[in-house]
Design goal:
about 100 residues, mainly alpha, about 0% strand, globular
Length: about 100
């Protein structure tokens, strides 16, 4: 994809950041887009929560949190906003992409 991608394409690529392993698409598709990278970092934090959902003792709580944060992230992408996910979004800035 070129650096100057259209807004609709950018939103679609950013949307993949919140869909589990589809996070690989924005990770490799777009190199220099601030909007996509913001949501990519948010998605990486969310992916950690998704992995924690596989732990039997705390899994159901993490699975519920994963679904809620995923919906919030997708809504932010669709609105074209760069808003941190509640409670976990601040940790996204630690990822260097």
């Amino acid at each position: 994809m070129s650096e100057a991608i259209k807004t609709n394409e950018k939103n679609l690529v950013a949307l993949f950041s919140y869909l589990g392993l589809l996070i690989l698409i924005p990770l490799f598709a777009v190199k220099h887009d601030r909007f996509v990278h913001f949501h990519l970092r948010q998605g990486l934090v969310l992916l950690v929560i998704g992995v924690c959902a596989a732990v039997p003792v705390v899994g159901p709580a993490f699975a519920l949190a994963y679904m809620i944060f995923m919906i919030i992230g997708i809504l932010n992408v669709l609105k074209g906003e760069e808003k941190h996910l509640p409670l976990i979004g601040q940790y996204a800035e630690k990822f260097k992409i």
